[in-house]
């Protein structure tokens, strides 16, 4: 039995999750420590975090295998049922430049930091728009109210919580670039989805994102204030709109992930 692990954040950063989630996650890891033959991890960081957790909490350092799976960036890649070519009616004006954030609204994603940075820009008269795509998560009731009651909501600030793959592709293709402000990630799939669409990325300076350095990413300090982040956003937008950020598409795809998954299981089948 093999299990897919995306991150160890409920163990390592419990303050970002509900008590029920923390308890269930700890129970899940405890069960896996007894029954798993192997673990499929979405990054080297997740692999390292998993091994550390199994040793620290369960005294387990051998008796299992791990395999790192590269994540693909093409939505509906591999012959899925989603048709990313069908026309989608735009719910907002995509002809005017905008920056994009993709991901569930939850504490670790950094939406609040980016919104407050844009507040600084808007007070200075900047015309940039910010589009948020992601379902409502947990522990963000105050952020939800701040977004919905924001004076720029529907003008320079948009939030869509029900976007399907075809519409997401359309939004990726129209955006100036994507901001990923997460305080922690196991991988950060929207980052390579954006690069895969040829879009530059502004990312919080985390080790998990540094592995993509040089592929079209600019970084802002992990502990940046709203004012410092506003400066970084302004410079990044200017560079992106001037075509000064060269973007390299990721090399791996979902086919690579499938092949490595099957290779990991081959010894079990034999």
UniProtKB/TrEMBL annotation:
Stored InterPro entries: Glyco_trans_1
Residues annotated as domain Glycosyl transferase family: 92-239
PANTHER family: GLYCOSYLTRANSFERASE WBBK-RELATED (PTHR46401), MANNOSYLTRANSFERASE A (PTHR46401:SF9)
Name of the featured protein: Glycosyl transferase family 1 domain-containing protein
Source species: Novosphingobium pituita
């Amino acid at each position: 039995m093999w299990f897919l692990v995306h991150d160890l954040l409920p163990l390592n950063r419990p303050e970002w999750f509900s008590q029920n989630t923390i308890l269930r996650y700890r129970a899940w890891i405890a069960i896996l420590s007894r029954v798993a033959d192997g673990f499929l991890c979405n990054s080297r960081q997740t692999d390292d975090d998993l091994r550390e957790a199994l040793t620290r909490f369960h005294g387990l350092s051998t008796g299992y295998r791990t395999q790192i799976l590269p994540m693909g960036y093409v939505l509906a890649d591999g012959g899925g049922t989603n048709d990313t070519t069908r026309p989608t009616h735009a719910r907002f004006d995509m002809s005017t430049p905008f920056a994009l954030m993709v991901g569930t609204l939850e504490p670790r994603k950094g939406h609040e930091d980016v919104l407050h940075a844009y507040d600084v820009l808007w007070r200075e008269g900047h015309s940039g728009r910010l589009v948020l795509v992601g379902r409502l998560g947990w522990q963000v009731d105050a952020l939800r109210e701040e977004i919905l009651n924001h004076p720029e909501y529907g003008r320079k600030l948009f939030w869509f919580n029900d976007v399907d793959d075809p519409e997401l592709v359309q939004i990726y293709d129209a955006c100036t670039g994507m901001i990923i402000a997460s305080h922690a990630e196991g991988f950060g799939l929207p980052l390579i989805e954006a690069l895969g669409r040829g879009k530059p990325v502004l990312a919080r300076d985390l080790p998990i994102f540094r592995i993509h350095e040089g592929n079209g990413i600019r970084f802002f300090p992990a502990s940046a204030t709203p004012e410092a982040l506003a400066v970084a956003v302004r410079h990044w937008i200017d560079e992106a709109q001037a075509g000064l950020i060269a973007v390299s598409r990721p090399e791996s795809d979902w086919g690579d992930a499938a092949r490595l998954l099957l290779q990991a299981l081959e010894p079990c089948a034999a």
